[in-house]
Amino acid sequence: MMEPINVVVTGAAGQIAYSLLYQLAVGSVFGPEQPVNLRLLDIKLMMDVLQGVVMELEDLALPLLREILPTADAAVAFKDADAAFLIGSMPRKQGMERKDLLTANVNIFKDQGEALDKFARKDVKVLVVGNPANTNALICSHYAPSIPKENFSAMTRLDQNRAQALVASRLGVQVDQIKNVIIWGNHSSTQYPDATYATVNLSKTGEGVISVPQAVNDNEWLNDEFVSTIQKRGASVIAARKMSSAMSAAKAAGDHMRDWFTGTKDGQWVSMGVVSDGSYGIPKGIVFSFPVTIKNKKFSIVQGLEINDFSRSKLNITAEELMEESEEARQVLKP
Ligand code: NAX
């Protein structure tokens, strides 16, 4: 039997964690042979609620789930961590300025970066879900200098899943017949969902694997309605549910970490917010969502895709927003 791995979930008393924890405990993220110790971090005020979550986890009676450790102490949570889902963050409240939200959150991710630096394993894989996810990931990695920058990522997988599902529905095919839709940039309304290089498997109809733009045959839809629907999807869910996406966000977090640990399939790309190395002319150092392939727990940004003028303008908008966010975060953190 394999040794258990230590998995941290922050914001563990919140709604995304509530859907994620079952996936971790049942083995659908780290595999059906991999036991896990769960380290559940939340703020002191939430410890009673978290105790209820712990009881439910116990009541799952799942053999892969070993230790369950609820705590409000980051030093305890991150000790020897192999993987961390950083979900907990301060939600925007009514009347709150963007700046106030950023101040609260960059400080949370600074503290957690420092705790990761001190206590986690150096090969820990960190997925930031809490918003603003890209900039939080940047801050977190900055304050954890002993851990390689490649071990930090921000979640845009929910956007990718949404985009893949929308293309599948438009073409009337199953979602797994669509591959390689890309999310570029920030997990915000400036993100650029791009189906230029996506393919659809139409073997059932005898047409084979063809490009999505060819199958859709409507560039106006792809450049306009498709992009804006995905950009606004999070807001549409909030408008309907009066709460932000949780089940789909948790599923996406599981997808992201599973692919990071087990690798992508041949010919398949996934989107992850990672520290830019300057690929596609994106300024170095910001956390930007790129298409990546993953092997042996290491991602590589897919290279050589041709970027047309339309795509370039979209990439520039989202890169500029990320530059501004990282500058604002720097101002907040100035000593
Ligand atoms: P909830 O408000 O249900 O839960 C958040 C939890 O985090 C609460 O229990 C809170 O006490 C805890 N928390 C706050 N500060 C903390 C700290 N310093 N340490 C540990 N825990 C702390 O929010 P939920 O719906 O679970 O969403 C969590 C975050 O995910 C939000 O920032 C949200 O905006 C973000 N999202 C990101 C998505 C993405 O695709 N990257 C999509 C879904 C979601 O909107």
Bound molecules: ligand NAX
The CA-CA distance between the termini, in Å, is 48 Å
Arrangement of strands in the largest sheet:
3-2-1-4-5-6
The largest sheet, given as strand count, sense and whether it forms a barrel, is: 6 strands, parallel
Helix segment count? 11
Please give the share of residues in helix. 40-55%
User: Mind telling me the C-alpha Rg?
Assistant: 20 Å
Order of helices and strands: EHEHEHEHEHEHEEEEEHHHHEEEH
Number of strands: 14
What overall geometry do the principal axes of the alpha carbons give? globular
Low-pLDDT segments, ≥5 res: none
Strand share of the residues? 15-25%
Average residue pLDDT: 95
Task: Tell me about this structure.
There is one protein chain. The longest helix is centred in the C-terminal third of the chain and has 25 residues, at 309-333. The chain has helices at residues 15-26, 47-59, 74-77, 98-119, 133-142, 157-171, 212-216, 219-231, 233-241, 247-262, 309-333, and strands at 5-10, 36-41, 65-71, 83-86, 125-128, 152-154, 178-179, 182-184, 192-194, 199-202, 208-211, 270-275, 287-295, 298-301. By secondary structure, the protein is an alpha/beta fold. Helix 4 (98-119) crosses helix 5. The radius of gyration is 20 Å and the shape is globular. The protein contains 11 helices and 14 strands. The strands form 4 sheets. Strands 3-2-1-4-5-6 form a 6-stranded parallel beta sheet, sandwiched between helices. Strands 7-10-11 form a 3-stranded antiparallel beta sheet. Strands 12-13-14 form a 3-stranded antiparallel beta sheet. Bound molecules: ligand NAX. Ligand NAX binds next to helix 1. This is Malate dehydrogenase. Pfam families: Ldh_1_C (PF02866), Ldh_1_N (PF00056).
